[in-house]
Amino acid sequence: MNAPIRHVDPAQPRHDWTLEEVEALFERPFMELVFDAAAIHRRWFDPSEVQLSQLLSVKTGGCAENCGYCSQSQHFKTGVPASKLMEAETVIAAAAEAKAGGAQRFCMGAAWRDLKDRDLPKVAAMISGVKALGLETCATLGMLKPEQARELKAAGLDYYNHNLDTGPDYYDKVVTTRTYQDRLETLEAVRDAGLSTCCGGIVGMGETRRDRAGLLHALATLPAHPDSLPINDLMPIPGTPLGDSEAVDPLEFVRMIAVARIVCPKAVVRLSAGREHMSRELQALCFLAGANSMFVGGKLLTTTNPDKDSDAALMADLGLRPMSMEKVPAGPETV
Ligand code: SAM
Ligand code: DTB
Ligand code: SF4
Q1: How confident is the model at residue 247 (pLDDT cuts 50, 70, 90)?
Q2: Taking Cα atoms as reference points, which of 107, 108, 116 lies closest to residue 64?
Q3: Which-ligand-closest: CA of 202?
Q4: 129-148: per-residue pLDDT in tens?
Q5: Which of 28, 70, 255, 264 is catalytic?
Q6: Is 166:174 a contact under the CB 8 Å cutoff?
Q7: Which ligand lies nearest the alpha carbon of 240?
Q8: Catalytic residue check, 255
Q9: Could you report the per-residue pLDDT of 34-73, keeping only the tens digit for each?
Q10: b/e string for 42-53 if b means 16 or more Cβ within 10 A?
Q11: What is the pLDDT of residue 43?
Q12: I want to staple 131 with a disulfide (CB 3.0 to 4.6 A). Which of 3, 68, 78, 156 is the partner?
């Protein structure tokens, strides 16, 4: 039967979830789980609103890390050529175009293990320029030192994306050039600088349901819940160790979204990579289960995403509209 949810008000954020409780959510009858997640979603957000983000790879390929899912690692032959950090003006022009196309948030991604101080002035210039366009700003640049996080904040950065990617017990099956603890330390620097955190992970890397619960448990027991929580469905990249991974059952993917919504009720849950191979019906279920953001614009970092017209049609058919930005949580979660 249904495992009881321990708290009095199921929509109030909790930071004391146990792994067993999170696993028990995954085990619930599908309809009950989605219904509860949808109810919690409505408590904190207008369920007809979806935030539209656009990504740009500002520095592609040649990365020193060996993340087994990634097209940009120099450890694997994926055919993605390495390129240098883009000029700030080029990035700002791309952001202006994204805004004109309807994007509300612009995320700049770099294939770096960590941010080098020598690159900071150029990165700060792009952030300031994108912010000045009136877009919400996000960056994902690898590991950060506390001082660097403060400089990014001063430049106008709203969110820093740094994913835990999977549960702690599965992490070293996916990447060995850094540890879970390294990720947690950057997240701490990000929070301490007053930046909002964007932190989630990937399903479809051969992990178990317990590992998926482990990821959401790790996120829900952070000192502050992520403000933005991306759930990526693996885009299998030929040439990477995970290039032949078996696809995850779509209903299991919906469960992941629903449990994320329940354990981090105030987070903007982002339906991230993998929409390209999802049916419209599956995406509709994800929005019902609490997803309220997606990447738009035809391209993610190095892989493809649904085009503008098909997303516009999907939103129209589902009665969804772009999120009014006053409703997006303005700063880091306080506990
Ligand atoms: N280098 C930085 C880092 O790893 O933090 C930023 C860029 S990295 C590409 C950002 C995130 O994209 C990863 O943490 C991972 O969750 C996601 N990602 C990368 N490749 C992916 C793939 N093939 N499928 C799904 N998600 C992917
Ligand atoms: C996140 O969690 N997903 C985005 C964003 N954060 C940076 C990246 C998805 C990348 C998908 C693979 C690619 O395009 O290279
Ligand atoms: Fe580098 Fe990020 Fe790709 Fe890992 S996920 S290889 S850190 S770009």
Answers
A1: very high
A2: 116
A3: 1
A4: 999 999 999 999 999 999 99
A5: 70
A6: yes
A7: 1
A8: no
A9: 999 999 999 999 999 999 999 999 999 999 999 999 999 9
A10: eebbebeebbbb
A11: 96
A12: 156
Amino acid at site 235: M
Closest atom, ligand 1, to C-alpha of 162: 5
CA 212 to centroid of chain Cα atoms: 15
**Mean pLDDT in residue range 209-231:** 98
Q: Which residues contact 175 (CB under 8 A, 6 or more apart)?
A: 65, 66, 67, 68, 165
Rounded to the nearest whole angstrom, what is the distance from the C-alpha of residue 167 to the centroid of ligand 3?
17
Q: Which of 14, 28, 105, 107 is catalytic?
A: 107
Q: Indicate the DSSP class of residue 136.
A: E
Q: Please report where in the chains the tokens 């030929």 appear, as a residue.
A: 238
For residue 146, count other CB atoms closer than 10 A to its CB.
14
Indicate the DSSP class of residue 75: T
Of the candidates 53, 113, 111, which has an alpha carbon nearest to the alpha carbon of residue 85?
A: 111
Write the DSSP symbol of residue 24: H
pLDDT, one tens digit per residue, over 177-198 is 999 999 999 999 999 999 999 9
Q: What does the alpha-carbon distance between residue 58 and residue 42 come to, in Å, rounded to a whole number?
A: 36
In the chain, % of residues over pLDDT 70: 95
pLDDT at 232 over 80: yes
Instruction: Decide: helix, strand or coil at residue 206.
Output: coil
Nearest to 15 by CA among 217, 162, 177, 301: 217
Task: Mark out the alpha helices in 207-307 (DSSP H runs).
Answer: 209-220, 250-263, 280-288
- Which atom of ligand 1 lies at the shortest distance from residue 113's CA? 1
Burial of 29 (0-12, 13-18, 19+ CB in 10 A): exposed
Distance from C-alpha of 256 to C-alpha of 303, rounded to nearest angstrom: 22
Q: Which domains does the chain have, with CATH numbers?
A: 19-318 (3.20.20.70)
User: With 90 as the cut, is the pLDDT of residue 4 above it?
Assistant: no
Model-level pTM? 0.95
Beta bridge partners of 140: 109
DSSP secondary structure code for residue 63 in this structure: B
